[in-house]
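so my prof wants the structure for this chain in the tokens format not the other one, which i didnt know existed until like an hour ago. anyway here's the sequence
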Amino acid sequence: MSQQDFERFLYKIDQLNRLVELINKSPEKYKLMISCNTHEEVVELAKKWGYEIGKRWGEY
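here's what i got, hopefully its the right format
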């Protein structure tokens, strides 16, 4: 893993942690999240809320 990949990895973890915090504070957002049927739907919903969780650490 390169330094750049490691930084992307940490960034994604941070985004996921912030997303979980947001969902835990909002029953409405929780309901929207659990209504997703695919990974792509989760990624798009998170993106609407300002979080980038779609790319894996090795993707550019």
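also thought this was worth mentioning. The longest helix spans residues 3-25.
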